[in-house]
Amino acid sequence: MTPSDIAQHRNQVLARIQAAIEHAGRPAGSVALIAVSKKQPAEAIRAAHAAGQRAFGESYLQEALDKQALLVDLSDIEWHFIGRIQSNKTRQIAAHFDWVHGLADLGHARRLSEQRPASRPPLNVCLQVNLSGETSKGGVAPDAVGALLEPCRELPGLRVRGLMTLPAPSEDETEQRRPFRALRELRDRLATPDCPLEVLSMGMSDDMEAAILEGATQVRIGTAVFGVRSTD
């Protein structure tokens, strides 16, 4: 895909986001686009950056580190780690990312906090919630989120920003909205004045409108921005 194609596709995604915001009666600018660039070359990220994109999501650590090295001149990129966390990779995640979207383990949380460089601000994290109970999906059960949230809030190297989910796909908007509504309602029950959990990371290329209608503040979009990713 050419740089102009990527810019055009990004603009189309932004238009979809804006239309959904207006449909939901929400304020302009209330939903951020995270361009999921896993399995995309560094040149595609550079093209999206040139078009105005700043937040990028990666799931494979070594691939992400390689691309970060190639894009070191783009100092204003905001890197989001959205893959499964492994204990032996927390040090590099803590050092090289601004956000983590799939935190679901207190041991990982403690490692990320301890290994966050003192020169950097606390690592922004979203706790991943498994609303469907699918064993293939990461995340903690809804009734276990509170028990994970409380100790995570006390870790100095982390800043718990909100909740994230990756629901089972559906083509029906009513069914798409159900898990997103459940995540928002869970957030509303757990939020406190000193930990408002203002971020709801939910919605992808095929269901972003449903997610925005239910309160998403960050949508993670890959295919609609970059096209179908490589399977190599």
Molecular structure report:
The protein starts with a helix and ends in a 6-residue tail after the last helix. The mean pLDDT is 96. An eight-stranded parallel β-sheet has the order 7-6-5-4-3-2-1-8. The chain has a single domain (3-15, 30-226), classed as TIM Barrel (Alpha-Beta Barrel), CATH 3.20.20. Helix 1 (3-24) crosses helix 2 (42-50) and helix 4 (90-96) crosses helix 5. 41% of the residues lie in helices and 17% in strands. The protein contains nine helices and eight strands. With 232 residues, the protein is of the alpha/beta class. It is globular. Helix 3 (61-70) links the parallel strand 2 (55-58) and strand 3 (78-81). The longest helix has 22 residues, at 3-24. It has helices spanning 3-24, 42-50, 61-70, 90-96, 106-115, 145-153, 173-190, 208-213, 223-226, and strands at 32-36, 55-58, 78-81, 99-103, 123-129, 158-165, 199-201, 218-221.
Considering the chains and any ligands shown, give keywords for the structure.
single chain, 232 residues, alpha/beta, TIM Barrel, eight-stranded parallel sheet, 41% helix, 17% strand, pyridoxal phosphate binding
Overall form: globular
CATH architecture: Alpha-Beta Barrel
Estimate the helix proportion, in percent: 40-55%
Count the DSSP helices.
9
Q: What do we call the CATH topology? A: TIM Barrel
Rg, alpha carbons? 17 Å
Strand count, sense and closure of the main sheet? 8 strands, parallel
Structure summary, number of beta strands: 8
Q: How do the strands of the widest beta sheet line up side by side? A: 7-6-5-4-3-2-1-8
Instruction: Tell me the count of domains.
Output: 1
* Beta fraction: 15-25%
Helix and strand content put the structural class at alpha/beta
The mean pLDDT is 96
CATH class: Alpha Beta
Report how far apart the termini are.
17 Å
CATH homologous superfamily name?
Alanine racemase
Low-confidence stretches: none
How would you spell out the order of helices and strands?
Answer: HEHEHEHEHEHEHEHEH
GO molecular function, one term: pyridoxal phosphate binding
Family: Belongs to the pyridoxal phosphate-binding protein YggS/PROSC family.
Protein name: Pyridoxal phosphate homeostasis protein
Cofactor: pyridoxal 5'-phosphate
